[in-house]
Amino acid sequence: MGIKVVAQNKKAWHEYQIDTKIEAGMVLSGPEVKSLRAGRANLKDGYCNIDARGEMMMYNVHISQYDFATHNPNEPLRVRKLLLKRREINKLIGKLREKGLALIPLKIYFIESGKAKVELGLARGKKLYDKRASLKEKQSTRDMQREMRQKY
Prior knowledge:
By secondary structure, the chain is α+β, with helices and mostly antiparallel strands. It has a single domain, classed as Small protein B (Small Protein B, Chain: A). Helix content is 32%, strand content 34%. It is built from 4 helices and 9 strands. The chain has helices at residues 10-15, 30-37, 86-96, 128-151, and strands at residues 4-8, 16-26, 41-42, 47-50, 56-59, 62-63, 80-83, 101-110, 116-125. Strands 1-8-9-2-7-5-4 form a 7-stranded antiparallel sheet. Strands 3-6 form a two-stranded antiparallel sheet.
């Protein structure tokens, strides 16, 4: 069965160079889970940080309100707690203190047991010339594949 991807942050791959990936659970309310199952989430401006109590939190991730929720409607842009082990959080604290590193959500998905997970990426921002180089490389590989298809 595998995983069911709900939302992906495609812009992150263009804006950042992703060094490592981490999987984390999310603390969600019932209507938020139903909204995610309907595929109504946006990760475009999301980021993660550690709050004053040492807990990992996710900011600016938009999960739309579930239309059929009768009570307790969720705030779409609320701060959500991420579930990570203390050892992982301590490792991330050390990494995030480095200059230029950020922790951004890459995708939200459901695993086989039905739990919602978020894939986080430890990312370093790209400069404009890095973005141009990656686009140029992508275009050249696309051209090579096109030529190979035409030859054979």
